[in-house]
Amino acid sequence: MGGTWVHWGQPHVWREISRYQMRTELESSFDFSRGVNHFQLNTTGGSATMSHDEEVCRTSSKTSGGQAKKATQDALLASALGKFVNVDGAFGRKIMPQPHDLFHVPEARQLDKLSAKDRLDAIALTLSPSERAVLQGFVLLCSGGTLETMSFLEFLHWWAICGYTYQGCLDYLITYKFRGGQSSFAIKFFQEALCTKKLAYAFNSPIRSVVDTSSRVEVTTRDGRQFQASRMICTVPLNVLNTVSFNPPLPQGKRSAISVGHVNQCVKVHAEISDKDMRSWSGITYPENPLIYAIGDGTTPAGNTHIVAFGAYQHHIHAEENLEETMNAVKSLAPGKIDIQRLVFHNWSKDEYANGAWFFSPPNLLADHLEDMRARHGNVFFANSDWAVGWRSFIDGAIEEGTRAALAVNTELRETGKLAANL
């Protein structure tokens, strides 16, 4: 239900995929070999279809950002995104030349003052109605928030880390997945830890409080159990940290980041539909539909098409609260083509251990508090993909953060002679 897609350009996740010899266990979400084989755009102005080649720019370009100049067959999304990210005349390459070092160019901090709406307003006269519709739909897919509340800089970071092209965004963000699901990958980490014979674990143990006495850290669960260790690695997501009491209190910068939180309240709905030809379909429906972006994602054991659809806080629904509304939102993605056999979803917004989907920042959060979120607090280390410097909010970012914290703890424990926690 989450963390589906990976890519060999994500360094930390690919290292683990290679170590676990899972390179051949990936498959593509997209299959354009049969069926309708088109991209569908539904807006207030009507519905239109185009080939995937028209949707995605595959032509050579005379510009450093990989975006072709306007032409008859130019890609709609690539054209719109090129205008959106081109704040430096180089499609983001000058202002963010090193995506893993967000503020390598100091002027990038100023861009974190902008929301997506601010940037859209700045380029409004350059966008056709169709460009504006697909652009807004795509950036909302990425943020799961609203145009007013999502950071333009964080979107630019996604763009840069995907290679500064729309095709790169597709390849990195929503193409390659494990044939056996993400759990087939995650279990490898757990099994490896078990094999060390040094792992003690407790599931279903939500944390109430953390007390750092300088000589040890004491964690208390909601049901009163206590665990002690010389060091603690806290992996609680940003939007959940306010449910845990810390003593001594967290520093002001970290508390400020927690009070702001991230904006992603994405709605993700999986649908099994009977039309086999929809396997090669994708589309954007904006602005009237709660579900904005969807793709044909696979074929079910029954031979039906599996599609996955995304909505944002811009036009938010809770999928389980009104199933008729949810089904109508799915059907509206491709009117007359979607015969629903089954729906599957999880409400991340109401999940108390998430309070939202993947991290996406509001304006100013990264410029003001990225280092605060990453900083340790006494004997407590904080490791979560929400404040990774590279693939922030992705599995790759989680591995980046976990290995960073693990190395720091291991180094300190070796230096002090404390090599094992007291659980």
TrEMBL record:
Enzymatic class: oxidoreductase
Highest taxon in the source lineage: Eukaryota
GO molecular function terms noted in the UniProt entry: monoamine oxidase activity
SUPFAM superfamilies tied to this protein: FAD/NAD(P)-binding domain
One Pfam entry name: Amino_oxidase
InterPro entries, per the entry: Amino_oxidase, FAD/NAD-bd_sf, Flavin_MAO
Residues spanning the membrane: none
All copies of domain Amine oxidase, residue ranges: 1-409
Catalytic activity: a secondary aliphatic amine + O2 + H2O = a primary amine + an aldehyde + H2O2
EC number, UniProt record: 1.4.3.4
Family, per entry: Belongs to the flavin monoamine oxidase family.
Xref: PANTHER family: AMINE OXIDASE (PTHR43563), AMINE OXIDASE [FLAVIN-CONTAINING] B (PTHR43563:SF1)
Protein name: monoamine oxidase
Species per Swiss-Prot/TrEMBL record: Macrophomina phaseolina (strain MS6) (Charcoal rot fungus)
